[in-house]
Design brief:
Layout (H helix, E strand, L loop, with lengths): L1 E7 L8 E7 L6 E10 L2 H7 L16 E8 L11 E4 L2 E3 L5 H4 L11 E2 L19 E5 L4 E2 L6 H4 L5 H11 L7 E5 L3 H12 L3 E6 L5 H7 L3 E4 L3 H5 L5 E6 L8 H4 L2 E9 L12 H5 L3 E4 L5 H14 L5 E5 L3 H9 L6 E5 L6
Parallel strand pairs: 10-11, 10-13, 11-12, 13-14, 14-15, 16-17
Antiparallel strand pairs: 1-2, 3-4, 3-8, 3-17, 4-5, 5-9, 6-7
Helix pairs in contact: 4-5, 4-10
The protein binds NADP nicotinamide-adenine-dinucleotide phosphate and zinc ion (2 copies).
The site of NADP nicotinamide-adenine-dinucleotide phosphate has 30 residues, from helix 1 and helix 5.
């Protein structure tokens, strides 16, 4: 087995702290990756604090991973030592069910293997995420980082980027469509950039008046302060698609009323507690309320290539791993523009 170092939570209430743990040896189809940067997703915080009630401790979060290949198994044809690669939210799936065969591994009938919080398929025990020195992943779940991309700001594309790209594509964001993005955090700022790049008329909904100018710079034609009823009412029945990235419980009803007849509201934010839903706005206009989870491996590669071609990456604040607990507190206060990216060289500093 390989020995790794990283940062882990030991319980829902303890700060993340250094840990040494094992990963499987490099198998025939495996790629070993030295982790260079790892984005900090709000899911990492939900997971470290067991807000989704499935965390096994010690818990090593991190699923926006960029690194360099340091070794490959005998059967690996896709990657070579020295190349820059990425790993997102999944490291395996059954590969034979209808969802996997369609390239929708995230919806695998047997459940995908999460980069953290899953069950390690070879040595058992929990999978450990990217707040660590290295990772071993089957080549089929490794992404190619297009040449020239900035590594620290590309890391967040592996979760935040694909989580918005997939529903934008699926529900047809593009010219002639009006798309709303709720929340300007890690996911939301990628949503604004990607929706705009796809050619949709893009509107940002935010609770933070201080983010209006940034929202416009990132690609929103209009920015609506969601607590201002008059600003909201100005958009009644006008949206084809609204994507909700909010990490906390909040009232969705005002947004349903902004959808056109048969428009769709997609939930990607995953708050700890159930959301109350008023059904009449859905019934009255045959509106849809849907969910979406990350994206498949081929679609994630497509998203990386789309972003490389248009010079799109995340806006990041680079931090050493030792600042991770402070970063979590700041993320809870929406005090980050707009994603933390951990410089993993700090692990050995
Ligand atoms: P984040 O960076 O913390 O951003 C969340 C944003 O939501 C904040 O910046 C804030 O935007 C808004 N917000 C926060 N609290 C709010 C409240 N009480 N009421 C209204 N708005 C509030 O988080 P993230 O990393 O983007 O993740 C967002 C959520 O998506 C998390 O729950 C995460 O677990 C989930 N997620 C889901 C998937 C998936 O596949 N479905 C993938 C990744 C993450 P404003 O200041 O602009 O209002
Ligand atoms: Zn994530
Ligand atoms: Zn499957």
């Amino acid at each position: 087995m390989l020995t790794c170092t990283g940062f882990a939570a030991a319980s829902p209430t303890t700060p993340l702290a250094p840990i040494t743990f094992n990963r499987r040896d490099v198998g025939a189809d495996d790629v070993q990756i030295e982790i260079l940067y790892c984005g900090v997703c709000h899911s990492d915080l939900h997971f470290a604090r067991d807000e989704w009630h499935f965390t096994v401790y010690p818990a090593v979060p991190g699923h926006e991973i960029i690194g360099r290949v340091t070794s490959v198994g005998a059967g690996v044809s896709k990657y070579k030592v020295g190349e820059y690669v990425g790993v997102g939210c999944m490291v395996d799936s059954c590969r034979t069910c209808p969802s996997c065969v369609e390239g929708l591994e995230q919806y695998c009938d047997k459940g995908n293997v999460g980069t953290y919080g899953g069950t390690e398929p070879v040595i058992g025990g929990p999978t450990f995420g990217g707040y660590s020195s290295s990772i071993v992943v089957d080549q089929s779940f490794v992404l190619r980082i297009p040449e020239g991309m900035d590594l620290a700001s590309t890391a967040p594309l592996l979760c935040a980027g694909i989580t918005l790209y997939s529903p934008l594509k699926h529900w047809g964001a593009g010219p002639g469509k009006k798309v709303g993005i709720i929340g300007l955090g890690g996911l939301g700022h990628m949503g604004v950039k990607l929706s705009h790049a796809m050619g949709a008329q893009t509107v940002l909904f935010t609770t933070s008046p201080g983010k209006v100018e940034d929202g416009k710079k990132l690609g929103a034609e209009q920015v609506v302060i969601s607590k201002d009823a008059a600003q909201m009412a100005a958009h009644t029945e006008s949206f084809d698609l609204i994507i909700d990235t909010v990490s906390a419980s909040h009232d969705l009803t005002p947004y349903f009323n902004l959808l056109k007849r048969e428009g769709t509201m997609v939930q990607v934010g995953a708050p700890e507690h159930p959301l109350p839903i008023a059904v009449f706005p859905l019934i009255m206009k045959r509106r849809n309320f849907a969910g979406s989870m990350i994206g498949g491996i081929a679609e994630t590669q497509e998203m990386l290539d789309f972003c490389a071609a248009r010079n799109i990456t995340a806006d990041v604040e680079i931090i050493p791993i030792q600042k991770i607990n402070e970063a979590y507190e700041r993320m809870l206060k929406s005090d980050v523009k707009y994603r933390f990216s951990i410089d993993m060289a700090s692990l050995t500093a």
